[in-house]
């Protein structure tokens, strides 16, 4: 007599709920009819996932499961695969804990039907890893990622290409947990797997090299990241030419590193960044395959960079205008255009001209206490060139203590200006406020010191 197995309580609850909420459902009799119905619902599931209708996709799988479990000799392997699909839809809809439970049930069913190393386990074990990460259960996620890798290696060999994606995800998991060394080691493994399948000059290696360079930068390995981006750029130029669009994200990324590092290899990093961004802009605009969105973003990035680096506002506004025009000519991009240009955007919250005293005030403001008995409110405009203008102190307690220091801080702000009908326009009455603590007995000395600093600064302007 064939062994039967009762569906888990969690699933029966879902089935019972569906029987109530799915009008018009009727049981399908006969194996052929069931198979036909399953195929139809499976196609519906795939289309719903593709369309982003994740809740509906989950309900679609529940319908299949409800019919499937009517057979006392149901296929446990197929049962596990269906549960995996249900959990995947739940994960995509943000129901992480429900997804975890159903992934666990799927794993149990597949193990029952086969063994702990069956290749069908890869999907639910990997899926559970992702759901555990989303639920902030990092240690459990790490274990499941490693189990996924083990099952992949048993079934597909040590160098299976499907291993690359999992290793890359595990690297991100380690980064999230703060283990930067492990994150970078996983990136090395990622590169090794890809290199095993593609020769050293293959364009297929670009995503792995880009991922490694990005992770190095995120883990504060600045110089190693720069070298990784340079290797990436050299590979793209050799494999796909000097005008390859694949160079644009690499140029943008390496520029971001250079902008934030004053001296690189004895040269001003900002000058190198400017050259990379110019090349990115030229490649993007000359490419027939480039979308209006990509072209706009390159010019906006160039404008943001130049806004903080140069006093030549004509060049800055010229780049922003080009970006606005590319977004404006495509009606589908008007929402992004408005999001990008409807308000002035502060690009340098800590200008280079800000004093050590201002940095201390901002640090106090970032760590508020009950003793913050002083404050300054400054009002200002943002002019058409993206600079702060018409700066005035609105409130100051105690008056005069740090007024000039805060005004000088605001004076150094650089913005992406607000645009209207393709033209930069002035933004009025923006405010900046900072709170701090002060000692009544030290006010006179502080004022004398600040007055001296004001005189020194004014003498140089």
Summary keywords:
461 residues; mainly alpha; Serine Threonine Protein Phosphatase 5, Tetratricopeptide repeat; TolA/TonB C-terminal domain; two-stranded antiparallel ribbon; 19 helices; disordered N terminus; disordered C terminus
Question: Describe it for me?
Answer:
The protein is mainly alpha-helical and 461 residues long. Among the domains are: 1-156, Tetratricopeptide repeat domain (Serine Threonine Protein Phosphatase 5, Tetratricopeptide repeat, Alpha Horseshoe), CATH 1.25.40; 356-460, TolA/TonB C-terminal domain (2-Layer Sandwich), CATH 3.30.2420. Helices cover 63% and strands 9% of the residues. The protein has helices at residues 9-21, 31-50, 54-68, 76-92, 96-113, 122-134, 138-156, 162-176, 180-197, 206-218, 222-240, 247-259, 269-286, 292-309, 313-328, 334-341, 356-366, 403-411, 443-460; strands spanning 263-264, 267-268, 345-346, 374-382, 388-397, 415-416, 418-420, 423-425, 427-436. The strands form 4 sheets. It has a 3-stranded antiparallel β-sheet. Strands 1-2 form a two-stranded antiparallel sheet. A two-stranded antiparallel sheet has the order 3-6. Strand 7 (418-420) and strand 8 (423-425) form a beta hairpin. Helix 6 packs antiparallel against helix 7. The protein is globular, with a radius of gyration of 30 Å. The model is unreliable at 1-30 and 454-461 (pLDDT under 50).
């Amino acid at each position: 007599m064939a062994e039967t197995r009762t569906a888990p309580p969690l699933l029966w609850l879902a089935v019972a709920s569906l029987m109530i909420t799915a009008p018009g459902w009727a049981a399908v009799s006969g194996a052929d009819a069931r198979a036909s119905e399953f195929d139809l619902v499976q196609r519906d599931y795939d289309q719903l996932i593709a369309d982003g209708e994740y809740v509906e996709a989950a309900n679609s799988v529940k319908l299949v499961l409800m019919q499937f479990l009517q057979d006392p000799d149901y296929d446990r392997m197929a049962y596990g695969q269906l549960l995996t699909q249900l959990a995947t839809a739940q994960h995509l809809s943000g129901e992480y804990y429900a997804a975890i439970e159903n992934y666990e049930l799927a794993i149990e069913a597949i193990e029952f039907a086969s063994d702990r190393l069956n290749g069908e386990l890869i999907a639910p074990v990997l899926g559970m890893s992702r759901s555990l990460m989303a639920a902030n259960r990092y240690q459990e996620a790490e274990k499941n990622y490693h189990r996924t890798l083990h099952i992949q290696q048993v079934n597909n060999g040590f160098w299976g290409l499907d291993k690359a994606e999992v290793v890359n995800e595990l690297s991100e998991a380690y980064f999230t947990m703060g283990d930067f060394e492990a994150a970078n080691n996983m990136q090395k493994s990622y590169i090794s797997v890809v290199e095993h399948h593609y020769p050293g000059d293959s364009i297929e290696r670009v995503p792995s090299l880009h991922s490694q360079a990005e992770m190095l930068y995120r883990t504060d390995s600045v110089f190693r990241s720069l070298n990784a981006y340079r290797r990436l750029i050299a590979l793209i130029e050799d494999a796909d030419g000097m005008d390859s669009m694949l160079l644009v994200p690499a140029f943008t990324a390496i520029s971001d590193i250079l902008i934030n590092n004053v001296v690189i290899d004895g040269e001003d990093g900002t000058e190198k960044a400017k050259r990379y961004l110019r090349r990115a802009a030229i490649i993007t605009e000359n490419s027939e395959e480039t979308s209006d969105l990509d072209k706009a973003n390159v010019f906006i990035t160039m404008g943001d960079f130049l806004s903080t680096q140069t006093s030549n506002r004509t060049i800055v506004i010229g780049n922003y205008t080009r970006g606005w025009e590319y977004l404006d000519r495509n009606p589908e991009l008007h929402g992004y255009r408005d999001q990008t240009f409807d308000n002035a955007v502060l690009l340098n919250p800590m200008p280079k001209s800000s004093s050590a005293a201002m940095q201390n005030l901002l640090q106090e403001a970032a760590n508020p206490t009950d003793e913050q008995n002083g404050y300054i409110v400054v009002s200002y405009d943002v002019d058409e060139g993206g600079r702060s203008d018409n700066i005035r102190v609105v409130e100051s307690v105690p008056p005069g203590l740090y007024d000039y220091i805060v005004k000088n801080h605001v004076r150094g702000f650089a913005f992406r200006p607000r645009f209207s009908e393709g033209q930069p326009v002035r933004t009025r009455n923006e405010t900046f406020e900072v709170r701090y603590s002060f000692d009544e007995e030290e006010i006179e000395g502080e004022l004398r010191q600040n007055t001296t600093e004001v005189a020194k600064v004014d003498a140089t302007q």
